[in-house]
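#dry-run=false #mode=assembly
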Amino acid sequence: MKMTGSQILCDGMVKEGVEVIFGLPGGAVLPLYDTLPQYSQLRHILVRHEQCAAHAADGYARATGKVGVCLATSGPGASNLVTGIANAHLDSVPMVAITGQVARPFIGKDAFQEVDITGITLPITKHNYLVLDTASLGKVVREAFHLARTGRPGPVLIDIPRDVLAEAVDFHPPSQTELSGYKPTLQGHPAQIKKAAKLITESRQPVILAGRGIIISGAHNELKQLAETAQLPVITTLLGIGCFPESHFLSYGMLGMHGMAYANMAVNDADLIIAIGMRFDDRATGKVSAFAPDARIIHIDIDPAEIGKNVRVDVPIVGDVKVILQALNKLMTPIEHIDWVKQLDTWRREHPSISIRDSDGLLPQYVVQQIYEVTQGEAIIATGVGQNQMWAAQHYCYHKPNSFISSGGLGTMGFGLPAAMGAKAGCPDSTVWCIDGDGSLQMTIQELATLVQENLAVKIAILNNGYLGMVRQWQQLFYGKRYVATPLSGPDFVKIAEGYGLPGLLVKHRGGVRPAIEQAMAHPGPFLIDFRVEPEENVYPMVPPGASLAEVLEAPQPEAKAADSAKLPVSNI
Amino acid sequence: MVVTKHTLVALVEDKPGVLNRVASLFRRRGFNIESIAVGHSEKPNLSRMTIVVDGTTTSVEQVRKQLDKLPDIIKVSDITEDNIIARELALIKVHATSATRREIIEIVDIFRANIVDVAADSVTIEATGDEEKIGSLLKLVRGFGIKEIARTGRIAMSRGGPGLMPLEGKSAKANNKK
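#status=ok
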C-alpha cells in the first residue's frame, strides 16, 4: 500500500495511542498539517508559541502518564521547542517532539528556516532521529515512542524533512522494535534486595526519600505498603509530591532547600536513607558533603548512571521501582520504629514549617491554602517557577500521584500555564489550577488565547507580588537587599484576561480570596484571578545555598526579624 | 582522587552522528579526549571505538554509564584495569640525506618498523606499538629533523577472554555490564 510520510507518521501515532498533539504549523510541516484531518483520533491543539507546545505536551504527560506529543516546523519552530525539551529531559517526562526539516536536497545548505535541531537537541533528548528514508519512518516512530515511555522516560525528537512528509512509498508496518543498544534493567538484583531488607530491619532511624520515579513507575501502593509494614517515615522530593498521601501519619512532607524543617532534620539524623526513584539533586540534598552524615544509603533507581553520581551509596538496586518494591515487600515483616517516629512528630510540633503567620495582609500562602480547601485536594496543580512554586508545593495537601505538575530540574519560568493547559487537555474531567507568579506567567501569557480557543477550563491564580519574587528573596537575604532588576510593574492582568476573552478578577484583600476561588470554580471555562499579595513575603523554611540541610532557616519570629539575616552562612553558589 | 589515563572500548551502531553523540558526552562531562580511534568490528553494522581519556576512576565510570545509556551504543567497557594489548600506528616523515639515511634505517630496524616511502630528502617510517615505543622511536629520529607525523591513537583489546560482546543478540548487553 502506498502511503505518504505524513500518513505513516499519523498512522504510527494513532497506533501508539496518541490523542492530542500540541503544535504550530509552518512551511516544512504543511504536508503533515494537510494530512491531519484524515486522522480524526488526533486532536491538534494550536498553541501560540512552540515552547508552550513542548510544555503542554510535558504537562499532558505528567497528568496522564502517557507520552506527550508536540509538533513544530523547521528552523525557529524547532529551536523554540528547545527549552521545553530540556525541561522534559531533566524531569524524565515521556515526550515525542516532531519537527519539520527543510527538504533533503536543501539540508546543509543553510536553507530558509533550516536549523540543525538534531545537533542542538543531542544533549537534551534521550535520543533523536533525522529521517532521510521515508520507508524507515514507521520504524522510527515506533522506536521513538518506545524509548520515550520505557526505562527512564524522556523526550525523543524526530526531525522529518518536508519532502519525506510528502513522499509516497510502499508501506510495511514495522515489526517488533529491535534496539540492541537499549535494554533497560527492570528486575532488581535479588541479593541486593535482600541486603536492603536486612538494613531496613536493623535500622533505628530510617527514612524513605521518595521521588518522581515512584509516580512514573506507578508504585505508590507498593510504597505505602513498605512504609506501613516497616513503619518508615516518608519524605518526598519536589517532584515526588503526590506519590504518598500527605495526610498520612507517616508523611513528613518535602525535603530540600524549601522543604519542611522537620523533614530536613530527619534526613540529617537518619541512620538509613531508602532513596526510591530520586536522583539526589543539589536542591534536595543541600551541601552534598554534609548530606545525611550518619546514614547508610539504599538507592533504588532504573537508571544505573544515577547510582553514585552525587552521593555514595551502600546498597544500589537498579531496576523498575515498582518491581523492586514488590520484591522488597515480600521480604519485609512488620516492624516498628516508634521512638524515631515520635522524635519526628516532636520536631514537627516544634518546627511547624508551614504554619501561616498572622497578618491582615493578603498572604500568598493563604491563597494556596484556600485553593486547597475549595478544591478539597482534588485538583491538579501546575505551577510556575519561584516563590509561587514553593508555596504551591508547601501549602496544598496532595494525596494522589500526578496531581502536582512543576518544573523541577530545569526550573523553567513560564512552565505553569502551558503545563496546566496540557494537563487539562489530558484530564478534561479534573479541576486544573495554574498557580503562578506575575513574572513567570508573563513568559507564556499568550497561551491564554489557546485556553479560550480550545475551551480548556484552566483556573489561574496569580500570586502577584510585583517582583521576580524568589530572586528578590535571594537579593534580600544574600545581596544586602539590593533589588536589582527584580521589581516588575504591571500589567493589569484582569484587562489582559478580558482582552484574550476570559473573565478575570482582581483580589486585594484576604476576605476576597475564598469568594473569588469559588467564582472561578463555578465558571465553566478558563478563569483568571490576580491576587495582589504581600510584596516582600519570603518562602520559609529555607536552606541557604551551599549550606547543609541541618542549617535550615525558619520563618523569622516577629521580634527576631532584624537579627536573622546576620546569622546566614556565606553562600557559595 | 587520582587522575589516570583510561582506555574505553565501545561497540556502536555504524550510523551517521554516532561519533558526535559519543564525543558530545565527553565534552559535556568535561573530559578531554586524548585519542579516539574508530573502525569496523567483527560484527556487521557495528563499529568499534577505542577512546583514551584522563580522569578519576569515579568520573570515568560515570561517563561510561552515561555512554551505555545511548541507544546507539551496544556495549562500552573501561578496560584500563584488564590485561590488554594496546597499539597505535604512526607515520613519521624524517628529513634524510645520503649521509643520514643509513643511520635512520638502522634505528628503524631496531624498532622493527618499516620504511614505506623514500624521497630525495626524506624517508617515511611506519611504526606500530604502544605509545611508549612510538615515543622512543620519535626521540631517536627527532635529531634528523621531523617533517610530519600522523598517529592513529590507541586501539586496544583484552588479552584472551571471550571478547567485548561474546553473546549473540539481545541479552549480551545486560549480562556483560561491568
